[in-house]
Amino acid sequence: MMVLGIVLIGATLYSCQATTSSEQAFFLDITAPQTGDEYATTMIGVSDKLKSATGVTVKLAFKVVGVPRILTIISVTRVCSMRALELQLESLKVIVTAKELYDIMDLATDLSLPSTHIALAKAKRPKTLTGEYIYFGESNFITKDLDNAAFQTLLQRHIKKSLELQIAGIKFINYNVLGESPMQLLTFAALPPRHLQKTVWQEDRVNIFRAPSMTRVVPLEDYLKENYCN
Q1: DSSP string covering 118-187, please?
Q2: Closest Cα partner for 138 from 171, 99, 168, 108?
Q3: Total tally of structural domains belonging to the chain
Q4: Domain containing residue 78: CATH number
Q5: pTM of the model
């Protein structure tokens, strides 16, 4: 019998205290071990559980192309809501990992970096991502041998570049995994393959390490309704 496994970074699922802020974001990576008809049923079941969970708001939900895997960003106002969602997903016999997130836009605001004030005011972050080409990627800052000043400079440069890309009309949403060291970023981007490759080539390869590949995803609702197959 497959049991639900949750690795939670930065919070305890069993506390029913309110969170310190108005909402708290989590990244859920959900994999269904079933195949065939059971696999399709499980994908629908996960979607239903996410949408019906009390106190949980689904901000983004994607199905990985070719793999029985769902990636979703949710927010809660009470950590106790995560406990209820855990039990609902457990009934589907799926495997789940969870990480608490810190919105990059919030990070830019909280750090109050002088060089990002103007860009932050102009940046238009999308609330969701649509289209045929959407990719998910993970990357890490390489902080070895960097002192505090050098790391702050690196972080400031990255945040400024992210804001400039949004101002230029490139649609993406990124989050920092709370408490990760080295700093880990999760990014969902709506870009055609060639544009995506160009953006990756232009990254700071000295100080940022990206996972070997970007993962193609589709909005979960589009997958369930077969919007791109009709």
Answers
A1: HHHHH----SS--SS-EEEEEEEE--TT--HHHHHHHHHHHHHHHHHHHHTT-EEEEEEETT-SS-EEEE
A2: 99
A3: 2
A4: 3.30.70.260
A5: 0.81
Q: What is the residue-level pLDDT of the chain in tens, covering all 230 positions?
A: 223 333 333 333 333 444 445 789 999 999 988 666 688 889 999 999 999 999 999 999 999 998 899 999 999 988 888 988 999 999 999 999 999 998 777 777 777 666 666 666 677 778 889 888 999 988 877 777 778 887 777 777 777 777 888 888 888 888 889 887 777 889 899 988 877 777 666 655 555 555 546 899 999 999 998 876 65
Work out the angle at residue 55's Cα, subtended by the Cα atoms of residues 53 and 56, and round it to the nearest 5 degrees.
60
Residues 54 and 73 occupy one common structural domain: yes
Last residue of a domain, one of 78, 102, 126: 102
Q: Return the closest-CA partner of residue 129 out of 28, 219, 201.
A: 219
End-to-end Cα spacing for the chain: 36
Name 60's Cβ contacts closer than 8 Å, sequence gap at least 6: 71, 72, 73, 128, 129, 173, 188
108 and 78 fall within a common domain = no
Query: Which of 102, 118, 152 finishes a domain?
Result: 102
As given in the structure block, the two tokens for residue 29 are 């990576």
Which structure tokens are listed for 121?
């005011």
Q: Which residues pair with 60 in a beta bridge?
A: 73
Which residues face 188 on adjacent strands?
Answer: 136, 173
Which run of H or of E encompasses 39?
A: helix 36-52
Domain enclosing residue 64, as ranges: 24-102
